Amino acid sequence: MKNAQPTAEPHDVNANFRGGGRSVEYLDQINKASIVALAEAGIVSEDVASRIAAGILALIRSERAGPRQWSADYLDYEPKLLAIVGADASRLHCGRSRQDISATIARMNLRGGLIDECDALVRVRQALLSLAEQHTRTVVPAYTHGVQAQPTTLAHYLLGMNGALTRSASRLQAAYAHVNQGPLGSAALATSSFALERDRLASLLGFDGLVENAYDANHFAPVDTALEVAAALGIAAVQIGQFAQDLHAQYAAPAPWMTLQRGELVGVSSIMPQKRNPAALEQLRVQSSMLLGDMQAVSLLAHNVRSGMFDYRAYDPVPSARALALFELLRKVLGGLVVDKERALAEVQADYSTATEIADALLQRADVPFRIGHHFASALTDYGRSRHLGLREIPYAEAARIYETAASQAFPLDAQAFAEVTSPEYMVFGRKGKGGPQIAEVERMLARQREELAVDLAWTQSRRAHLALAETQLDSAVAAIADRASASSTTTASNPETTS
Q1: Per residue, what are the HEC states of 114-178?
Q2: Which tens digit of pLDDT belongs to each residue from 220-267?
Q3: Which residues in 389-432 belong to E strands, given as ranges?
Q4: Tens of pLDDT, residues 359-404
Q5: pTM of the model
Q6: 485 Rama class: left (phi>0) / alpha (psi -120 to 50) / beta
Q7: Which residue from 215, 236, 221 is spatially nearest to 302, judged by alpha carbons?
Q8: Where are the beta strands (DSSP E) in 336-415?
Q9: Which letter, b or e, does each residue of 309-342 get, where b requires 16 or more Cβ atoms within 10 Å of its Cβ?
């Protein structure tokens, strides 16, 4: 008979779900909050609570001194605490389960990620507004259907992108309000016979309130809160991908009006010496797509799954690393943009994007019905393009003739007026509607968006401060309990007769 092979150590097939983010650190915080609440409720005696608290703190010191711990599974943690404290260490688990522990860790990872993501978006938006401020008078072409449509300013476009990212920040903040509700103390799904103060547990961990229903706390809320975060990040990924494509389109032209600075943002070819590849824009698009894919995976994991299953129980359900890297890359791209104002204006003048203004001017100045003016501008465009002329290169006499043929009346604009209304600057800076590219309106939007940015910066700062204060108070409460164990052992050592 062959020698029996040694039995391998049992392996948790769910191990990859029980780590990530700051899960181990958050398990430590949960354990500290639990012993404080158990001691305050009288569920664990003062002496035992003191020894457990001291053991928790000893394990934290040990973790920080040694190799990084990856598992936040309580069943991996408890034997270590038992080795320090003894059998009484298991009292720490009174009134709770790995179910509510995992739900709590997941929320702590989610909220930490949300604060970091909102903070990163603040930095991106600061870069957008700073760039917009420099280009309130930079006339650029804008596109619909991939074709040059009308001129605007670069500031106007950038403020539009900032508006989109401001909404994404708002979605993340709204998700935070739902995420930052405590599930601890709900146990597996129906609480327990221990009279734990769940509100106290939530407060100790910096939560703003409770997921009240214990079943919801562990089996419905973990799904929809993760989905809410994923949806917000998925929308931001689409927005950034669209922006990357808008910028990348410039590189199809022999002489683009917007490029990236040479350096880390630009790649080169191994064979074509003339190539300057917009590597950062390609990565911006790729990373946006990958983030969107990651966020779709959150939905797929939860889709068509019964409540109580393991599929949606990851301790770090929506990792923030890719989103944060994407936001930082976008910030670098914004800082590395090089804008050729004269080339942008020349591209506008080379096409017919100011033709819209001809119809408007005919109506405003000569009461010509809009559709007549529109037909004339269209006919003028066909005439010029067929002869490879720009709009401003068409002789005034030809424009007047085309109008008379189309409208059966004399052209009501003189040469000076016709030249004026076909000017990109006239069209862009003569806008009247709210939210347009005219200087006064752009400056108003800049000021308002800076105010919104300040509010969002204050939000991230206040959230960080709130969690830092809660952690400080928790540490003080645990230290006070642990100190009793230290004081008790000191008293016993100095008075040995007390033990006889």
Answers
A1: HHHHHHHHHHHHHHHHHHHHHCCCCEEEEEECCEEEEEEEHHHHHHHHHHHHHHHHHHHHHHHHH
A2: 999 999 999 999 999 999 999 999 999 999 998 888 999 999 888 888
A3: none
A4: 999 999 999 999 999 999 999 999 999 999 999 999 999 999 999 9
A5: 0.91
A6: alpha
A7: 221
A8: 337-339
A9: eeebbbbbbbebebbbebbebbbbbbebbeebee
